[in-house]
Amino acid sequence: MEEPTNRVRRGRAPAPAGRTGRPRQAEVARLAGVSQATVSLVLAGKKQGPVISQETRQNVLDAARSLGYVPDPAARRLAAARNDLLGVFSFTATFPTDVQHSYYPFLVGVEREAAARGYDLVLFTGSSTGGAGADGPHALNRARLADGCLLLGRHAPVDELRRLVDDGFPVVHLGRRDEPEGLAWVGADYVSASREVVRQLASFGHRRIVLVREDDEAPASTDREQGFLEGLRAAGLPAGAEAVLRSADPARALTPERLRRWVADGVTAFVAEETDSGAAWRALSTAAHEAGLDCPRDVSLAVLGSPPPDLSPAPAPTGFDIPRAQLGAEAVRLLAALVAGEDVPERPVTLVACSYRPGATAGPPPGGLPAPD
User: Fold this and answer.
1) Handedness of CA 92, 97, 101, 107 (dihedral sign)
2) Are 300 and 206 contacting, i.e. CB atoms less than 8 angstroms apart?
3) 277, 245 in Cβ contact below 8 A?
4) Contact between 197 and 223 (Cβ < 8 Å)
5) Distance CA 184, CA 69 (A)
6) Cα–Cα distances in Å, from 142 out to 94, 96, 122, 175, 328?
7) How many Cβ atoms are within 10 Å of 75's Cβ, its own excluded?
8) Contacting residues for 141 by C-beta, under 8 A, at least 6 apart
9) Helix (H, G, I), strand (E, B) or coil at 42
10) How far is CA 14 from CA 11, 66, 159, 256, in A?
11) How far is residue 4 CA from its own chain's centroid?
12) Alpha-carbon span 344 to 309, nearest angstrom
């Protein structure tokens, strides 16, 4: 479907407030009134993909000229030389040592989908544990060796990502990211899944529930907290600051004594977020054990995701399952579309639903309190 065009006036447009350095493709797209994907196709001179009218092409070229946009010559040379390679760039240690590794299912989904589409994979791990160039100004330059790249990890250098996106290099982040503008990502719907866990706990009769989470601004953490608080409000339960324990060191903050005080004050269920370290769930389950609280007889526990792999032999906790292999496959599909220059939204985003897991750690509160109205 042809995009609407807005003719631009010739002459250099003023740079957006707060921006330094050369103009970005996102700015060209806004000025031309088209998507960033269309700008990338026009400036790269690509003919495959959606049909772009001559008027739209000229509009994009006029916008680029007025802004003084100059594409990265190295990026253009690499983009023109397709080699059927997709990169997987990790910002955390992801190479699986066994099948219980939390990233293993992601990589399985990535590998299967890439093979089905005729791509080989290149795994970049130099930045995963502080390797050479991990903090350098061009840490992601190696990704350009591939036709496009998947990025994994909760924390990634925004400026480096912005450079790739602005250059029109196909890149997809596995996990939600709000920055940089125009970055494609595939993620799990943690908000809805966390809300469902709270709904289930409320249906058992729990009136006070506390979330234990790490002190981290990663979108995966904020999404879980958002869903948790939405679930509390929907059930008419207290959802103020006292409903969330946020700590950089959950093991130190969540002592058995603190847990007993909460229980004595009427808290009957606790929820922990899942992270790469599993620190919140480890702290919660350890504190409950050391406090002598039986689960779920004395207190109910749930995890927003899955427990750390090394704790998996224990009874499965109440929570939700993340479709990691499906997320990996969806990320490859989106990246392949970007590499091929197919018509995609200006900000390609894919949310995948998680499934509720009843588990064995949640039940009615002590005394059989009635469910809230």
Assistant:
1) positive
2) yes
3) no
4) no
5) 22
6) 18, 22, 10, 21, 21
7) 18
8) none
9) helix
10) 10, 9, 22, 59
11) 31
12) 36
Between the ranges 46-50, 122-126, 176-180, 192-196, where is the mean pLDDT highest?
192-196
Fill in the amino acid letter for 7. R
Angle, CA 366 vertex, CA 361 and CA 371 arms, to 5°:
90
Euclidean distance between CA atoms 110 and 125, whole angstroms? 16
Helix (H, G, I), strand (E, B) or coil at 216: coil
Which residues fall within 8 angstroms of residue 142, CB to CB, at 6 or more apart?
A: 87, 89, 124, 126, 133
Distance of alpha carbon 174 from its chain centroid, rounded? 6
Q: Quote the tokens at residue 358.
A: 């009843």
CA distance 202 to 353: 21
Closest CA to 208 of 262, 155, 165, 161: 262
In the numeric block, the tokens 């009615």 are attached to: 364
Q: Are 228 and 335 contacting, i.e. CB atoms less than 8 angstroms apart? A: no
In the numeric block, the tokens 């130190």 are attached to 252
Token reading at 88: 């997987």
The predicted-structure confidence for 273-291, as pLDDT tens digits, reads as follows: 998 788 999 999 999 999 9
The larger pLDDT score, comparing residue 170 to residue 90, is at 170
How would you classify the pairing of strands 300-304 and 148-152?
unpaired
CB distance 174 to 151 below 8 Å:
yes
Question: E strands within 305-373?
Answer: 318-321, 349-352, 355-357
3-state secondary structure of 303: strand
Span 324-371, pLDDT tens digits:
999 999 999 999 998 888 877 766 888 999 999 999 999 999 875 444
Which residue bears the tokens 């704790």? 311
Map residue 9 onto helix, strand or coil: coil
- Spell out the alpha helix ranges (H) of the chain: 25-32, 36-44, 54-67, 73-80, 104-116, 158-166, 190-204, 219-234, 250-253, 256-264, 279-290, 324-340
Q: Residue 334: name the closest of 325, 323, 347 by CA.
A: 347
Backbone angles phi, psi at 186, to 5 degrees: -125, 125
Q: What are the angstrom distances between the C-alpha of 170 and each of 43, 95, 140, 226, 286?
A: 14, 23, 13, 30, 44
Please work out, in degrees rounded to the nearest 5, the angle formed at the alpha carbon of residue 105 by the alpha carbons of 101 and 109.
150
